[in-house]
Specification:
single chain, mainly alpha, elongated, ARM-like, Proteasome activator complex subunit 4 C-terminal domain-containing protein, peptidase activator activity, PSME4_C, PSME4
């Protein structure tokens, strides 16, 4: 009933707001009532109070306008007071008000050990609320703007319990009441920011975010006096549990204002400058990773096309720092560097695409040239190629027995290779983050240039590096490349298929399966044919795993690829296999390499397995010819046995109808292979009856006396 009464009070206050006959005292007392409810003992009442304050606090007399910013003073005069300021100020200036309020709000933040998804902005996730309570307390949040404005893909930031609606009430309270509110909240924010409990740090993060984003007169002075010091303290704090909440706080503080989020907040540049300030050399790697996490959270909220000159300069300076630190000794730092680098590079690229908009803003020629030359792109691709070569050479040397002198040399190579491994790990984090971000279109030329490193490092002696390469590989498989990047991608794929390392050739085939699926309708005919020829060539590869993989890929290509290319391949495969069979019959000593022989059979296998459920007119002949290779040596024999068994399995449901497409002889040749020479059930009834009768007669002959058996020889002779 208490909750329902508060809800009705809020409805009445909203309805009377536009009525000129209603005294402003009613609205101010109502707002004060809900402000007091923030420290209520009833959790549902606290949540409804947050909803009510976000609805009622609309005036912003202390908010700095764009026109006033060049002439900011610490105490601007002439601000008309809000109608709610008097009642609100009287309440929050009470002793211990914010201490009690923060403590009450911290109970709303329920931190679960198994927390796996971000609850950002949705405070109604608490277990203490029933469905009926949620229907009352959450109603008004449906009308509030969602935050953050940009997608959240950075797993590095973790799962947070930062509630943007909580931050919004602190921001609006400051905009209603001005600097007295900031002064009153200062000590409580500092106390809770240093608390050990994560829930208390959550509330402190929300309050500080609201303060930083309030843009009121006098905010710059407060930043210099205590907020900058507080932010630096948060960065240098050794704890890691509350990193997601503080990252969300920074992200909220730099979020653009206005309908489209392109207006720069008052303190954005100051916050960014604080974040890019170099850390003391004695800090732990945890603090280094935290700083990069905070930077990535801030940079994703910047609107690239509206970046100011200081923001462009900050991006360039930070880019140089990241490129120099990609070989960092800590894996967590390397991950943070890769993620931050992806945000940074996408911002630079997106900004450069709007170059015509910043040319008149006084950007000096050095920065303009830097953005156009893109030396960092060349550095990434060239260093990646060099690192891959070093890693592969080192892996090869590990498998060779060398003399003592060579061992000394290899020791030096291993030392260099460790740096290459670390650098490539950072690069893979960059690729993974870019592909997850939804911004990969602006970095597509770089992604294409890094195709070979991703494909070739799937299997290395370094487990962590291979794991990252596989993660990047899985994301990369579903990325569509448009012209002019498509032609370059095909060229890299074809060269990778001819790599000296068989694992790279196999990984290329894996990538080709999804690549062809995604690009079937946009690939030119010439490039399609080149890919088909390359895969067909791998049917005779020296490595049996590559040959079998190529057959599987060709089967997939024939299922959904170009029908003309599929028919041409099918006809050539049948013709070549048939020719080998005839030569075997004519000359039993006919010699041919195992790879060539196996490749011809695999071509037939690809044709047969390309139609797993249908029975086209050409299929019986292909299956029959394939079955005739069952007498070959391994690996041909095992390939034939598996293929025929798979054919029978996929056609089992409709076999009663489809077997009519086979002749009697074709059925015998095909089915006997699967049964390993045992009696197939599809023999004609006459032959089956004959075999059964012969069996019983032989048993009878064993039971007869030898004399009777001898006299009965003429009877058994016809059988």
């Amino acid at each position: 009933y208490n909750l329902m009464a508060n809800r009705v009070l809020l409805l009445l206050a909203m309805a009377s707001r536009s009525d000129p006959n209603v005294s402003s005292k009613i609205l101010s007392e109502t707002a004060g009532h809900f402000l007091k409810n923030l420290k209520s003992q009833l959790p549902q009442t606290r949540i409804l109070a947050i909803s009510a304050l976000n609805t009622l606090l609309k005036e912003s007399p202390y908010k700095t306008s764009l026109e006033d910013r060049p002439l900011l003073s610490e105490n601007s005069q002439g601000n008309s007071k809000s109608s709610l300021e008097g009642a609100l100020s009287e309440i929050f200036q009470e002793d211990g008000f914010f201490d009690e309020t923060f403590n009450s709000l911290s109970h709303v933040h329920i931190i679960a050990d198994t927390e796996s998804t971000s609850s950002r902005g949705s405070h109604g996730n608490s277990s203490f609320q029933s469905l009926a309570d949620k229907s009352i307390t959450r109603f008004y949040f449906d009308f509030s703007a969602s935050w953050p404005r940009t997608p959240s893909w950075i797993s590095l930031l973790g799962s947070d319990t930062f509630y943007s609606n909580f931050a919004r009430i602190f921001k609006r309270l400051i905009q209603e009441c001005g600097m007295p509110m900031i002064v009153a909240i200062k000590s409580t924010v500092e106390e809770f920011a240093n608390a050990k409990e994560r829930s208390k740090q959550c509330v402190a993060a929300e309050a500080l975010a609201g303060v930083l984003h309030s843009d009121v007169d006098g905010l710059l002075g407060a930043w210099d006096s205590w907020m900058m010091i507080q932010l630096k303290s948060i960065i240098l704090a050794p704890s890691v549990e509350s990193i997601p909440e503080w990252a969300a706080c920074i992200r909220y503080a730099v979020t653009g204002k206005g309908k489209h989020g392109t207006r720069v907040p008052l303190l954005r540049q100051q916050i960014l400058n604080c974040l890019v300030t170099p850390l003391p050399p004695t800090v732990t790697t945890t603090v280094v990773a935290k700083r990069y996490a905070f930077l990535s959270a801030a940079l994703i909220e910047i609107s690239p096309q509206k970046m100011t000159l200081p923001e462009i300069q900050l991006h360039i300076g930070l880019l140089e720092e990241l490129l120099n630190n990609m070989c960092h000794s800590s894996a967590h730092v390397r991950e943070a560097i890769g993620v931050t680098l992806s945000v940074l590079c996408s911002n630079i690229r997106l900004h450069a695409s709007f170059s015509h908009e910043y040319s008149h803003e006084g950007v000096n020629s050095d920065i303009d040239n830097y953005l156009k030359e893109e030396r960092w792109v060349q550095f990434l691709t060239e260093r990646a190629s060099e690192s891959v070569t070093n890693i592969q050479n080192n892996n090869h040397s590990d498998n060779l027995e060398v003399s003592a002198n060579c061992s000394t040399q290899n020791g030096h190579l291993k030392g260099d290779s460790q740096d290459d491994v670390k650098w490539m790990e950072s690069l893979f984090h960059f690729i993974i983050s870019t592909l997850k971000s939804g911004r990969s279109s602006c970095l597509l030329d770089i992604i294409v240039g890094l195709l070979y490193p991703v494909i070739s490092l799937q299997e290395t002696s370094n487990k962590d590096l291979s794991t990252l390469a596989k993660a990047a590989f899985e994301l990369l498989k579903w990325r569509i490349f448009w012209e002019p990047h498509l032609q370059k991608a095909v060229s890299i794929i074809l060269s990778s298929a001819d790599d000296s390392n068989w694992r790279t050739r196999s990984a290329t085939l894996t990538y080709l399966r999804t690549f062809m699926y995604r690009h079937t309708f946009i690939l030119p005919d010439t490039e399609k044919k080149d890919i088909w020829n390359t895969v067909e060539k791998l049917l005779t590869d020296n490595q049996v795993e590559v040959r079998e993989h190529a057959a599987a890929v060709l089967a997939g290509l024939m299922k959904g690829g170009d029908e003309k290319l599929a028919k041409d391949f099918r006809d050539r495969a049948y013709k070549e296999a048939n020719m080998i069979q005839r030569q075997n019959k004519r000359n039993s000593s006919f010699s041919q390499s195992v790879a060539s022989r196996h490749g011809a059979v695999l071509a037939l296998v690809a044709s047969v397995l390309s139609v797993p459920y249908d029975m086209p007119s050409w299929l019986p002949e292909h299956v029959t010819l394939l079955a005739r290779f069952s007498g070959e040596a391994t690996p041909v024999k095992s390939t034939v046995t598996k293929a025929v068994a798979e054919f029978r399995r996929t056609h089992a449901d409709t076999w009663n109808l489809q077997k009519d497409s086979f002749t009697e002889e074709q059925l015998e040749d095909t089915i006997c292979i699967e049964h390993g020479g045992s009696i197939p059930h599809s023999f004609s009834s006459f032959r089956l009856l004959s075999i059964v009768m012969l069996y019983f007669l032989m048993q009878l002959a064993l039971l007869l006396p030898s004399r009777a058996c001898a006299s009965s020889t003429h009877t058994l002779a016809p059988w």
